[in-house]
Design brief:
The protein is of the alpha/beta class. It contains 15 helices and twelve strands. The structure holds adenosine-5'-diphosphate, acetylphosphate and magnesium ion. Keywords: ATP-binding, Cytoplasm, Kinase, Magnesium, Metal-binding, Nucleotide-binding, Transferase.
């Protein structure tokens, strides 16, 4: 008999499904892929269709879901509320509870649930595990997690800071400690996850003590299409003076704001190109993005007291030398000094980009949310 050591990870996003098949016996990535533009012109119709396409892709690679070597399926679930703070074996009851959390993550949780349902239909015999974006942030102290609003109202509606991208913040903070040759327990790190969604976290000795996203993945940094922090008064103003409905304001702030709202492009590569041509809107979008990042670097430096490393990760953090340079420019007073030559080198692995004299290490650390989910899944269900 073969021992089942393979884990399939499904990361169903709002408009894409990413998958990875990992052999946990030796850490080999056997297959990975992406189905994009779900529900858009030229793309597949919906998430269920996207997942069937993932199943077909795997079958085409000779790695079909019917394989006896498959030990478990791990699912990224964005919102776990206060109910889920650990990876959880999926049952009908767990699915129902994730469904109850949809109002807290309307862009994300429905897609995650579809992924779970389709995978359970295809392999009802396999253990399936939900790994939550919020879980790594369950350690936030109350002072960081609570909003200063009426306590009874907050408790009644579950209003608090949950934080997201937790698998990335967990993976990258550990990988940063490894890069420094230290144990996670001995290192304080500010992790800057800069993808389409973007968030910062303050990790003290391996434990998350603050993060920029809140009740939903809208708060904090400027993102591709999301505003990040704004005065909540903007919402009332748009409703009372602009006559917009709650749904319209939600769409505006989540899908038509951020870099896209400021300059019409959400891709940092395009913004870089346009800045090179002297485009003033692209320049402003870049400056607003960087200004917000610097505020969080300052804030989380104060939260941590001692910072050993700042780690840049995800699409923008791993690839944009100009964002990294602008984010830490002129911060020598905080012990942060970049090495411009190292920073400009294009490379793929985890690496230091700070000057030898920098008190705070500045690192580029590629994230691997799928690996982190596979590890959590196998630990619970496979091994
Ligand atoms: N070479 C690059 N230079 C600058 N930005 C890049 C580069 N490559 C990718 N990006 C940015 O990374 C973003 C996507 O990041 P990613 O982590 O893949 O996002 P997500 O997983 O949230 O969809 C893109 O919007 C793009 O702006
Ligand atoms: C939670 C979140 O913002 O996720 P993503 O970056 O995948 O949109
Ligand atoms: Mg991502």
């Amino acid at each position: 008999m073969t021992t089942a050591t393979r884990v399939l990870v499904l990361n169903s996003g709002s408009s894409s499904v990413k998958y990875q098949l990992v052999d946990m016996a030796d850490g080999t990535r056997l297959a990975s892929g992406l189905v994009e533009r779900i529900g858009e012109e030229g793309g597949v119709a919906d998430h269920a269709e996207a997942l069937r396409q993932v199943a077909r892709d795997l079958t085409g690679k000779g790695l079909g879901l019917d394989s006896p070597e498959l030990a478990a399926v791990g699912h990224r679930v964005v919102h776990g509320g206060t109910r889920f703070t650990e990876p959880t074996l999926i049952t009908d009851e767990v699915v129902a509870e994730i469904e109850e959390l949809v109002p807290l993550a309307p862009l994300h949780n429905p897609a995650n649930i579809t992924g779970i349902k389709v995978a359970r239909e295809l392999r009802p015999d396999l253990p399936q595990v939900a790994v939550f974006d919020t879980a790594f942030h369950a350690t936030l102290p109350e002072a960081a997690a609570r909003y200063a609003i009426d306590a009874a109202t907050a408790d009644r509606y579950g209003i608090r800071r949950y934080g997201f991208h937790g698998t990335s913040h967990a993976y990258v903070s550990r990988a940063t400690a490894a890069l420094l040759g230290k144990e996670p327990a001995d290192v304080n790190v500010i992790v800057l996850h800069l993808g389409n969604g973007a968030s910062a976290s303050a990790v003290q000795g391996g434990v998350c003590v603050d993060t920029s996203m809140g009740l939903t993945p809208l708060e904090g940094l400027v993102m591709g299409t999301r505003s990040g922090d704004i005065d909540p008064g903007v919402v009332f103003h748009l409703e009372r003076v602009g006559g917009l409905s709650a749904d319209e304001i939600d769409t505006l702030l989540n899908k038509r704001s951020g870099l896209l709202g400021l300059c019409g492009a959400n891709d940092m590569r395009e913004i870089g190109r346009r800045m090179g041509e002297g485009d003033a809107d692209a320049r402003l979008a870049f400056d607003v993005y960087v200004h917000r990042l610097r505020r969080y670097i300052g804030a989380f430096t104060a939260v941590l007291g001692r910072v050993d490393a700042i780690a840049f990760t995800a699409g923008v953090g791993e690839n944009s030398a100009s964002v990294r340079a602008a984010a830490v420019r002129d911060l020598e007073a905080l012990g942060i000094e970049l090495d411009p030559v190292h920073n400009a080198v294009r490379a793929s692995g985890a690496r230091l980009v700070s000057a030898a004299s920098s008190r705070v290490a500045v690192a580029v650390v590629p994230t691997d949310e799928e690996w982190e989910i596979a590890r959590d899944t196998y630990r619970l269900a496979g091994g």
